[in-house]
Amino acid sequence: MNALTRALLTLLAAGATGALLWLASARFDLHHTGGYWAAMGVVAGGGLLLGLAQLRGGGGNPPGFFLLAFLPTAIAGLWVIVAAQPHANPFRNRVRTWDGDLGITRAVHFISSWNGVLALGIGLMFGLTMEPAWVLVRSRATAPAAMDTDAADEPLTAERREVVEQPTVTRTPTRTVRS
C-alpha cells in the first residue's frame, strides 16, 4: 500500500468514525446501561477503523497525508467543537448559522456530545501526519549492525569467479648453464 492510499484510507476511516459517533449518540440511550455500552462499543469500532487504516508498507508521504486526511478531519472536527461551545460568541454563532443553511444542525448536535473524542481525533491525525518523519529519525539513531569478521575475511563471489576463471598457465623451469 503506498502512502497516498494510507492517507485516503485514513480519511475514510475518520469519516466513518464520525458517522459512528453520530450513530452512538443519536441511536443509543446513554442514560441506560445497555445503550451506554452499545455506544462505547460503536466508538471503539471507530478507533479500530483508524488503527486498521494505518496498516501499510514502508515509506510515507507527510504532505499527502496532511492534505488528504488531516485537513478535512481537522475542519470537520473543529466545526463541531466550535458549535458545541457552551457560551455564544461570533464564531459559534456563525458556525451554527452555517449548520442551519446546510441542514446538518441535528447531526452536529448529536456528534457534539463527543467533542472530547473529536479533539483527541484531531490530535491523533496530526500525530499520524508526522509519523513517517519520526521513523526516519529513529532509524538513523540505531546502532550499526555487528559485523561478522569471519565472513568479512572470506572472498566475495566476484573474487571467487576471478580466481576460477583465470586461464591456467604452465611454466617450465628454465635452466641457466654457467660455463
General description of the model:
The structure is a single chain. Helix content is 72%, strand content 0%. It is built from eight helices and no strands. The chain is rod-shaped, with a radius of gyration of 32 Å. The termini are far apart. The model has no long low-confidence stretch (mean pLDDT 79).
In short:
This protein has 179 residues and is mainly alpha-helical. The protein contains 8 helices and no strands.
Number of structural units classed as domains? 1
- Helical coverage, percent range: over 70%
The quaternary structure here is single chain
Largest sheet properties: none
* Cα Rg: 32 Å
> What's the total helix number?
8
Task: Give the CA-based shape.
Answer: rod-shaped
Q: Report low-confidence residues grouped into runs of 5 or more.
A: none
The string of secondary-structure elements, in order, is HHHHHHHH
Strand content: under 5%
Q: If you average the pLDDT, what whole number results?
A: 79
Separation, N- and C-terminal Cα atoms: 85 Å
Derived structural class: mainly alpha
Number of strands: 0
Which descriptors would you attach to this protein?
8 helices; mainly alpha; 179 residues
SSE layout:
Elements (H helix, E strand, L loop, with lengths): L2 H25 L5 H20 L9 H22 L6 H13 L2 H7 L3 H27 L7 H5 L3 H9 L14
